[in-house]
Amino acid sequence: MWCEAVRWRERGELGARRFETAARARRTASLALSNRKEFTTPHNGAINSLQVDLTERRYLLSGASDGSAAIFDVQNATEYEAGFIAKHRSILLVDKQHENGHKFVVSMAVWYPVDTGLFVTASFDQYVKVWDTNSTQVVMDFKMPGKVYSAAMSPIATTHMLIATGSADVQVHLCDIASGAFTHTLSGHRGAMDPLNSLQPSSSSKIYSAQQRTGKGKKQSHKLHKSQIPGHGHIQQRLHPGLSSSQNCATAHYGAVTGLRTTTDGMYLLSSGSDSRLRLWDIDSGCNTLVNFEAMRLQTSKPLQLAVTEDPSLVFIPCMASIKAYNLWSGMTFQTFRGHYEPVNCCYYSAQEQELYTGSNDMQILVWSPSTPAGATFITTVQYFILQFHPKYHFDKDS
């Protein structure tokens, strides 16, 4: 029972950090469609992007296919329905009617990492715009060479104010808010960068598959050794089915990469593909960890925004009209969330509120909150945490 874990903590037999982790894990394990909290969205199109600010962790920013972006206060309700259902209406909206609004789809909306006074939107109208939250005016915009599919800012940068953008152009452009100009153009891709909607900046380098490789004359299967890690020698990689034999490059997925997400500790990178596969990569070595995630069905026509818990222990991924939570280390399906009527495009997990927010083509943002049924019994929460989330972790209640 949970009371037993509390008594352990009172007697000093359970460390504060382990107790906190166990409590968070218990709440995450009980996520369900909230019957106490509801977002009333002003969007008239599919929700493509969701992000809570990184400073106050209070304001949810959304971007939609009708060219609009909105901000919600996730802590303070606008009104209460029937006395107990908290309704959260948008406290800021910029749409096509705004004098500086986007004309087409808003593909990505992100907060300026160190201040809620600014946010950035990217659109199919070939513009990346920087908005002043207080005045709801554009303070800077960047004209791109094609439709903009992705925009991201580093949450840890201290010496620059760069926005990385991926567009229909085959290059990555870095936009500098400080100067209002492009500082770098990164070349290397052979096609449009539309699968990068869920990209978050990290220190990872190229991704190399450690499963199968082919030689010039015959197929070979190798086990990855240290000498074969990138930087330790040339590796002959299996060709992507869509590439000609002359374009030999590393292959992570058989098809487009539709989503990327780093874990909160920066140690691992998750990627989803149009082949309906999810991969977990070790950023330090660039190797596939070979976690076999259970079967899923993913959208192939749109980028996906994945979410991970702070532990990290679970990954949330949009699977058509549902959201599946997978154990990050075993690949097993932990839970399936159903509530949307049309395909889900984006997920965001708030560690502060311990809630999951999801956006869909049905123009709705749903809230999934911790809920414990009355009278439910649990095994010791610490043991539950160990068994469900970290099966390889050694349990020591004194740590």
Summed up:
This protein has 399 residues and is mainly β.
| Assigned CATH architecture of the largest domain | 7 Propeller
Radius of gyration: 22 Å
**Spatial shape:** globular
Range of helix content:
under 10%
At CATH level 3, the topology of the largest domain is: Methylamine Dehydrogenase, Chain H
How much of the residues is beta strand, in percent?
Answer: 35-45%
Number of helices: 3
Region (Disordered): 193-228
Organism: Oryza glumipatula
Keywords: DNA damage, DNA repair, Repeat, WD repeat
Protein name: Anaphase-promoting complex subunit 4 WD40 domain-containing protein
Give a verbal description of the structure.
The protein is mainly beta and 399 residues long. It folds into two domains: 31-207 and 252-371, 7 Propeller (Methylamine Dehydrogenase, Chain H), CATH 2.130.10; 208-251, no CATH class. The chain contains three helices and 29 strands. It has helices spanning 2-10, 16-29, 381-389; strands spanning 31-33, 37-40, 47-52, 59-64, 69-73, 79-81, 85-89, 92-94, 106-111, 118-123, 127-132, 137-143, 148-152, 162-167, 172-176, 181-186, 213-214, 219-220, 257-262, 268-273, 278-282, 287-288, 307-308, 314-319, 322-327, 333-338, 344-350, 355-360, 365-370. The strands form eight sheets. Strands 1-29-28-27 form a four-stranded antiparallel β-sheet. The longest helix has 14 residues, at 16-29. The radius of gyration is 22 Å and the shape is globular. The two termini are 20 Å apart.
